[in-house]
Design goal:
31% helix; 3 helices; 89 residues; globular; mainly alpha
């Protein structure tokens, strides 16, 4: 039996991103083109990367848009909060 996803609230999403980025000295993980990386080569994360638990991270996520289940489910972000999280990212 599978358990339904317990989605994060907007406040939880914000708090994870804020505290994670603060802990990185406000540096974000970006690729050579300046695009967001959920996990960068030197250990940095983008804002939404902080919402993805290490055990749920898949390198295949890199280069994909936040929009869609592939990122939303591991980040535990509901469809209703997808736009909020996308702007935060």
């Amino acid at each position: 039996m599978t358990h339904p996803i317990k989605y994060r609230t907007r406040q939880e999403i914000f708090n994870l991103a804020y505290t994670g980025l603060h802990g990185q000295g406000w540096r974000q993980s970006v690729n050579a083109e300046g695009g967001c990386m959920y996990r960068g080569p030197v250990g940095l994360k983008c804002a939404i990367g902080h919402c993805i638990d290490d055990q749920d991270y898949d390198p295949e996520m890199e280069g994909t848009s936040f929009v869609g289940e592939f990122i939303r489910f591991p980040a535990k972000i509901s469809l209703a909060d997808e736009q909020f999280a996308g702007k935060l990212q």
